[in-house]
Amino acid sequence: MPEGPEIKQAADAVARAIVQKPLINISFAFERLQPYEDILAKEQIWAVQAKGKAMLIRFQNQLNIYSHNQLYGKWYIKKANAYPVTNRQLRLAIHTQKQAALLYSASDIDVITDEQIASHPFLSRLGPDVLDDATTVEQVQARFLEKRFYRRGLISLLLDQGFLCGLGNYLRSEVLFVAKVNPALRPIDCTAEQILALANGAIAVSRRSYVTKGITNDLAMVAQLKQQGYGRQQYRFYVFNRDGKPCYRCGTEIVKDIAGGRRIYYCPYCQKR
């Protein structure tokens, strides 16, 4: 599933293609949304906003197209009247004179008003967005210490979009590694220094991934590994998907565990309990 950085990158691309551009037409695959096609095509889009793993396309008439990519959704930006070669099913198409924003495979799509955003079943329960410039380390730090969160295992907590939105499976492993915190711990088990490190890591690692299009590893280390001939999959992450390989910090073999059906990676030396 795309995580916050990937959705924000997609939102940027969609925005460049359709914001403040005269619309030619809009089409929905779902019959219940088709009455909105003509209404929205006559309006102008003023913003495209990522909301954690969801996206809002915002129109001047106070309507919004909400979408969530879930596991398989994918946005394509194409020239007008051009479509990708794919076996995916087209769910939403927004055409301008020069470009089109095309959403394939996603099934969680709706049209909602500005007022409905606050009560939307998904959007209304999102925690602070780690990619939002307004989200501070202090806010995230306080979040870890709230009574409803601090006794929960970090493994599940860091995937809960109601705790912090935008984090996902690869970011979870990377944040824990950067903070030097063992995945088996809960916030209540952590020192104040570890909580601060988790808060800093949640923001810094996520924003680095957004800026670098998916790289979470230390950029000086990345440059060094590139010079040595390593490919992207080898230098992209600190620990995620690197089980059996040496930790870039200490040389200890990275461990892979399965928790709740999801992979978690860590260094048993750098992240001692």
Descriptive notes:
The protein is of the alpha+beta class and 273 residues long. It contains 9 helices and 10 strands. A 4-stranded antiparallel beta sheet has the order 1-6-7-5. Strand 6 and strand 7 form a beta hairpin. The longest helix has 21 residues, at 192-212. The protein is globular, with a radius of gyration of 20 Å. The model has no long low-confidence stretch (mean pLDDT 96). Keywords: DNA damage, DNA repair, DNA-binding, Endonuclease, Glycosidase, Hydrolase, Lyase, Metal-binding, Multifunctional enzyme, Nuclease, Zinc, Zinc-finger. This is DNA-(apurinic or apyrimidinic site) lyase. It holds the Pfam family Fapy_DNA_glyco.
Give a summary of the structure in a few sentences.
This protein has 273 residues and is α+β, with helices and mostly antiparallel strands. The chain folds into two domains: 4-125, MutM-like, N-terminal (N-terminal domain of MutM-like DNA repair proteins), CATH 3.20.190; 137-266, Helicase, Ruva Protein, domain 3 (Orthogonal Bundle).
Binned strand content: 15-25%
In N-to-C order, the SSE pattern is HEHEEEEEEEHHHHHHHEE
Number of strands: 10
Helix content: 25-40%
What number of structural domains do the residues give? 2
Mean pLDDT: 96
> What strand order characterises the main sheet?
1-6-7-5
The major β-sheet equals: 4 strands, antiparallel
Net shape: globular
Which regions contain 5 or more consecutive residues with pLDDT less than 50? none
Any idea of the CATH class of the largest domain?
Mainly Alpha
How many distinct helices? 9
Family: Belongs to the FPG family.
Enzyme class: lyase
GO molecular function: class I DNA-(apurinic or apyrimidinic site) endonuclease activity; damaged DNA binding; oxidized pyrimidine nucleobase lesion DNA N-glycosylase activity; zinc ion binding
Domain FPG-type: 238-272
